[in-house]
Amino acid sequence: MPIFKGICKRAAALLLCGASLLSLAACGDDGPKEIRYREGETFTVAVAEEPETLNPFFATSKVAEEFFLLAYDPLWRLNAEGEPVNCLVEDYSLSSDKLTWTIRLRKDAYFSDGVQLTSSDVRFTYENMMISSPVYDPCFDGISDIRCPDSFTVVISTDYVKGDMRLNPVPILPQHIWSGETGDLRGFANEQMIGSGPFVLQPGSDNPQDVSWTFRARSDHFMGEPVLGSVHFVYYGTENGAGRAVSTGEADAAIDMTDVQLTTLQGVPGVRLIQAYLPSSEVWAIAFNTRKGVFADQGMRQMVEYCSDREWMLSMSSGEGGVTGSVWASPGADYFYSIVNLRPFDVEAGRNILYASGYNDMNNDGVMEDYVTGDKLVLKLWTSSQDDWSSTAGTVLSEALGQIGVELDWQTTDGPVEDKCTPKGDWDMCMLSWRGDGNPVLAARRFRTAANSLTGWSSDQYMTAYAQLQSATDDISVQNTTIQLQQILYDECPYVILAYHSDIQAIRDDRWTGFEEVLAQADGLFSIDSIDAYMSIAPSDAVG
User: Fold this and answer.
1) Beta bridge partners of 501
2) What's this model's pTM, rounded to 2 decimal places?
């Protein structure tokens, strides 16, 4: 479906439903319910970043996503194995053509202000997210209509068989809180975070030096009681500060640390280090502007890959904090495909491609020239100061390209590199990163021809396979199609995938237990897109 047509269709669906939206009031027979809390131990998590916002429409940080896992419920949750399981959904059915989902909601889900969650909250959230949220909008591809026949039934129609419907992680928001904010969603701070989840955000401290957030466990949640009484996140400013807090015992866990903590926390008594490769782990890459003459040539893109010493780039920038890359999927994803015939670091192979493409150092000044025009081969590379690794990787690449006579015009921006590398921008290459996704459709979506405004690369073969993935409903079809998509992108090389950065976490296993099964299933405890760890972590026998 063309982009503008899809937007118009979504907007029309919202307008058609608008007249009746407020008539489906989120209320129960007995009025607001009093929320009950669990008494128990507090689990303190050290973090090195603050959430940029508590507004789910726009938040992208890992810390914010952890908060949303605690405070809100989606229709389906992911378990520690990455499989969707019913959450707000009691049961559902599909029409014979698999284009209509009839979803029946639980009747025992209540928001933290005591108001019952109903179908109007689901429709309100979905319709507004698909129009207003750049974070969650991709989750709604293919959805054409949402209806609420009664207070606990949602009927969703799709344009095609939507195989990833149950992987939608969107947190269901209370319509009675958000309905007055739809005109200016960015300005809504959402400081109370009223949700139906198993934990409730508590009022913060008046002390401006205390940057922390406490989520108290509910004893009346339909998922059952968490073992913990509360989860307390404390902002320490840096990864080193968060690591020290775990080392000294001030904190019970730390998330999103760097490779430095792999050294500083190694061997600290009572500290379990976790180096996880998750579906959401960060991917580092070089992107090419295929709209311009040089990199419209697939061979020239592969020339840069031959000059990309992945191992040296990773070692210099991240030590032991990652592994070298090959395809766009994170190695933590079930659908990850390891390329067998990976092009190695080989500058002579790169030089031979230059010769075959019509370049030679005709005046012996160390820089290749075009045989026909005599122009020097100078490539403009953009990196961002926000990506610490890209400076080191750029230096390694510059040295290798220099060996074969390619000169770099290297530019650095303080903002996101995508701000400089626009379709009409002056650039040849850029170094950038992205986070993977447990949903293969959303992960593959980044490289669609229609949406790929960064590189300008197009492939009918990729788009055909992507359409097949969108409609795939069985695991074998998903796996085979995703492997095909990874191979196509690797062969045509609009990107060179340099490395996968690991998610480095720590937990005081001298104080806490109950997490071993989650760790075995998910390879991590936090940032796993599942609430299972928070529901199962418990004080060890050593804790009084």
Assistant:
1) 282, 322
2) 0.89
